[in-house]
Amino acid sequence: MSIINKAYRDDMFEVRHLVDEEHHGARLDQFIQLYLDSFSREMIKKKIKEKEISIVKRPGIHKPSTVLHHKDEVVIRFYKSKYEDEYWRGEKQDLQMSPDIVFEDNDLIVISKPAFMSTHPAGRHVFNCATVFFEMKYEQTIHSLHRIDRETSGILMLGKNPKIANEMMAKFENDDIKKCYLFIARANEFDRGEKEFIANERMSSPGEGLKRVYVEHYPENSLEGKHARTFFFILERVNGYVIGIACPQTGRQHQIRVHALAHGIPLIGDKLYLGSYEMFQRFKDQLATPADHDLMEIPRHALHAIAIKIPYKKEKEKVFITNIPADLKKWILEKTDLGIDILEAKILQTIKSYYNKEY
Hints:
Blueprint lengths: L1 E7 L3 E7 L9 H8 L5 H9 L3 E3 L17 E7 L7 E2 L2 E2 L7 E5 L3 E6 L16 H9 L4 E2 L8 E7 L2 H12 L4 E9 L9 E4 L2 E3 L11 E3 L11 E9 L2 E8 L6 H8 L8 H5 L1 H8 L5 H7 L6 E10 L2 E7 L4 H10 L4 H17 L3
Parallel strand pairs: 10-17
Antiparallel strand pairs: 1-2, 2-4, 3-4, 5-6, 7-8, 8-10, 9-10, 11-16, 11-17, 12-15, 13-14, 15-16, 17-18
């Protein structure tokens, strides 16, 4: 399905899709499911009934079963609602809506993305997005060069034109870009107490439908899943918690979170891997129990893209580093007696050492 046009207002987002030849004869609800893959069939039917989905120049009432034709134009409208909000223990969170800019020139924007900001519109999250923020600011198309999970904060690179987008995306695909993430985890009985280790567990999402969000891990010598590799450097172990730096060499979905779980250090706040798929759904549906909140400790998984090393233009390489985000800094100060200045020095030393070595 091809996007013809996108339009934003403060409280409304509209996207217009062209029906490709391969989708000729598809039902309207089935076609929409391809774009709104996180929406249930009932949610899509409701949007059609409320005329938030329509077929251009097609008179009459549109139904979920309405048959589409090649070159039809389908418009989907999203209105800002409670689905964009985030809650913790029943209270609406005050989210950071403006990302911090780490670097910017005529081609590239490097930001420190706040937690709960999406990289680009997806599913029900269409307003608090990095690309949307800068498209509204500069009144031009902004290209996402890679993505990080919505709950993950930290370094995110955006392109201002197709040329730089193609160049940088090729570097990501060729693993020419090296990323480092700060994480906070809770050690369990599978933690081996190592100061550093390499995780090579293979990964795949064997689930169907909405359950495909959960990624399973398999032994390195397994025939199941796909190859994945992450370097872990442990900075501190205190009060049963682990603070460290994770540097993925491949880019599998949820890679650091799954590798951390596989080695006995699931991330705090991780509703899927410290919790379960069922717990993830309870939080998603705002049905989480007090016990769920107690287990998670914080509203989002404790993962922050703290540094990235890239080959850029005429420079051999460029390194961008961002600070520990306020929510993780607050947790560290409340739960440990660690000095932030000392911890930041260890983080910088670890990142520098990793980037100076050949892996």
